[in-house]
Amino acid sequence: MPEKYLLWFHHVPWDHRMASGRTLWDELVVRYTRGVETVSTMRKTWASVAPYVDAERHQEVAAFLAIQEKEAQWWRDACIAYFQTFSKRPLPQGYAPPAKTLAEYEAIRTPYAPGHPPANPPGHE
User: Fold this and answer.
1) Class of CATH domain 25-106
2) End-to-end Cα separation, the chain, in angstroms
């Protein structure tokens, strides 16, 4: 079973050793954090190509990447807060805790996300 499917199809202990040598819990935290870091790197790369892209396009993509980074961060934090309720384990050393409580993340509403139409779509008040 490829490790990327491990949590979806199998129940394994939080201290299960992964191919990296880290425990399942530590690996989960590392990978969610890596997702945020990847978007941060994308933003830096995009910023470096500004001289080669028209200003309007560059600004638009930069804005979308900023949104993506912000959402990657709250998704990382929300997932870690959620899974930590089950693992009951501390974060690996050097990894920041979620910025909010699980209850605060659960209260976030995304009415314009796919599959979640708003109660009163714009123009239909």
Assistant:
1) alpha beta
2) 50
